[in-house]
Amino acid sequence: MGDIRFGIAGLGRLGKTHAMNIANTISGAQLVAACSVVEEELAFANNELGVNETYSTYEEMVNSPNIDAVCIVTPSGFHTEQICLAMEKGLHVFSEKPLGLEIEDIERTVETIQAHPDQVFQLGFMRRYDESYQYAKEMVDKGELGELTVIRCYGIDPSAGLESFVKFAKSNNSGGLFADMAIHDIDLVRWFSNKEVNRVWAMGKNAAYPELDDANELETGAAMMQLEDKTTAIIVAGRNAQHGYHVETELIGTKGMLRVAAVPEKNLVSVFNEHGVVRPTSQNFPERFKGAFLNEMKEFITCIKEKRQPDVSAYDGLQGTKIAAALQESVDKNQIVDVN
């Protein structure tokens, strides 16, 4: 099989990351088409990445006879419709998380994906492809921590982006803090434990920007989740980390514990100056998960060539969204919620 020919939908910050990886870094792939409603993004694809086919609508792009696969990096509300359309056109599909915002739409989309078993579908839970997380997962699976008892996850965006999010939230629906941000940590809980979540309790506070109350959005949220085997999972999600991009995971078991990125270090440099001893920290997700984004796209391409499905599935996306919806319901109702 020759190179996999991609069309990409959406060229925002994450879209550009995927586009540059496909066009410039990953062997066995070509970026031949791009679509966006933003003219500057199409100009970037054409001028910087050499993409000749540019489209203003997704429907036009998926009708191109020159693409084998699509990479969907559009707003979350478009994902289910765009996934289904690509599947019906016979294309392989890589979609960023979440799979969608509404459970019924996601369930229909899962059915469509399952009806096309010869086409590869992969969801962008890139933390599964991060080397540190893979190392931790291997330890857990080998039983080196014993039986898991507690999983703790922090996922906090840098405060530098909070003001722009507040403007966005006043006229757009992000899906809520847990669906928008904690979805990766929810997936990690299921991935590490191989268990489903059956009960949740969530809460939150808007401190820096109280006006988010009116938008029914959360600046910082916390959740306690009970898994089916009574393992406890604790999640903190937020948008206001002053030091940078803070993603941290702790696994506690009967034989030991481990932490992934207890300090979100940028590199192995220590700076000694008038501020003391300083360790630079990661400032954004493209920096922290640069290798993971590459690895997940390599896996997608390999799955196409080897005619197999990746480990991360549409079902994982469905379950993650169900849990996120239960967390939001818990916040809204101020009560413990069972997950169906």
Task: Describe the model.
- With 340 residues, the chain is an alpha/beta fold.
- It has two domains: 4-119, NAD(P)-binding Rossmann-like Domain (Rossmann fold); 128-291 and 320-338, Dihydrodipicolinate Reductase, domain 2, CATH 3.30.360.
- Helices cover 37% and strands 25% of the residues.
- The chain has twelve helices and 15 strands.
- It has helices at residues 13-25, 39-49, 58-62, 79-88, 103-114, 131-141, 162-169, 177-180, 183-193, 285-288, 290-306, 314-333, and strands at 4-9, 29-35, 53-55, 69-72, 92-95, 121-123, 148-158, 197-205, 220-227, 232-241, 246-253, 257-260, 271-273, 276-278, 337-338.
- The strands form three sheets. Strands 12-11-7-10-9-8-15 form a seven-stranded mixed sheet.
- Strand 9 (220-227) and strand 10 form a beta hairpin.
- Helix 4 (79-88) packs parallel to helix 5 (103-114).
- The radius of gyration is 20 Å and the shape is globular.
- The protein starts with a strand and ends with a strand.
Key features?
340 residues, alpha/beta, Rossmann fold, 7-stranded mixed beta sheet, 6-stranded parallel beta sheet, 15 strands, globular, Myo_inos_IolG, GFO_IDH_MocA-like_dom, EC 1.1.1.18
What is the domain total for the residues?
Answer: 2
Radius of gyration, whole Å: 20 Å
User: What is the CATH topology descriptor of the largest domain?
Assistant: Dihydrodipicolinate Reductase, domain 2
Tell me the β content: 25-35%
Helix/sheet category: alpha/beta
Please, what is the average pLDDT?
A: 96
Gross morphology is globular
The biggest sheet amounts to: 7 strands, mixed
Which CATH architecture of the largest domain? 2-Layer Sandwich
Can you give the helix content as a percent range? 25-40%
How are strands sequenced across the largest beta sheet? 12-11-7-10-9-8-15
CATH superfamily of the largest domain: Dihydrodipicolinate Reductase, domain 2
Topology order in helix (H) and strand (E) letters: EHEHEHEHEHEHEHHHEEEEEEEHHHE
Low-confidence parts lasting 5 or more residues at pLDDT below 50? none
- By DSSP, the count of extended strands is 15
Tell me the distance between the termini.
43 Å
CATH class of the largest domain: Alpha Beta
Domain Gfo/Idh/MocA-like oxidoreductase N-terminal: 4-120
GO molecular function: inositol 2-dehydrogenase (NAD+) activity
Keywords: Oxidoreductase
Family: Belongs to the Gfo/Idh/MocA family.
